[in-house]
Every structure is written in structure tokens, then in C-alpha cells.
Structure to design on (87 residues):
């Protein structure tokens, strides 16, 4: 356990940030799942859902919650599935 006052504060902040980051990652996972279901159902609203998902992924990348390549990979896989749906 930290002894100094600043170390205690850093620990509290770290825990808050970790909880927030987990929530963001869970949200992205849910968005991806919903997007995939819409694609499989060949629903036309899939493009709107994918736009929202990509926006969430980009925001997480910007804040450092997701790494650059991870975000790119997730977006690429989603777009591949969407493009296959159109064919």
C-alpha cells in the first residue's frame, strides 16, 4: 500500500480510470456484437450501427483505451463483413 499522500491519490485515480476503461471496452464489445447481428440479418440499419461503432472505437483510440492497431483491426473486420453483406 502507498505511504505518501500523492501515491495514495494516484492509486485512487488509477482505480477510477481502470473502471472507466473497462466500461468503454464493454460498450465497444456490445456495439460490435449488435453490428454483427444486424449484418447477419442483412438489415439496412447495419450501416448506421457500424458508423456508431467506428466512432466509439476512434474515441477509445484517441483516449488511449485501445491501442492503434487494435482499433484499426476491429474497424477493418467490421467493414469486411459489411461489404460482404452488400454482395
Amino acid at each position: 500500500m502507498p505511504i505518501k499522500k500523492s501515491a495514495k491519490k494516484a492509486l485512487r485515480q488509477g482505480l477510477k480510470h481502470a473502471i472507466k476503461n473497462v466500461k468503454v471496452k464493454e460498450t465497444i464489445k456490445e456495439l460490435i456484437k449488435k453490428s454483427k447481428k444486424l449484418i447477419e440479418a442483412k438489415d439496412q440499419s447495419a450501416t448506421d450501427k457500424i458508423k456508431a461503432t467506428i466512432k466509439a472505437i476512434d474515441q477509445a483510440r484517441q483516449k488511449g483505451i485501445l491501442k492503434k492497431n487494435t482499433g484499426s483491426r476491429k474497424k477493418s473486420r467490421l467493414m469486411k463483413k459489411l461489404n460482404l453483406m452488400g454482395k
Summary: The mean pLDDT is 95. The chain has one domain: 5-86. The chain is about 85% helix and 0% strand.
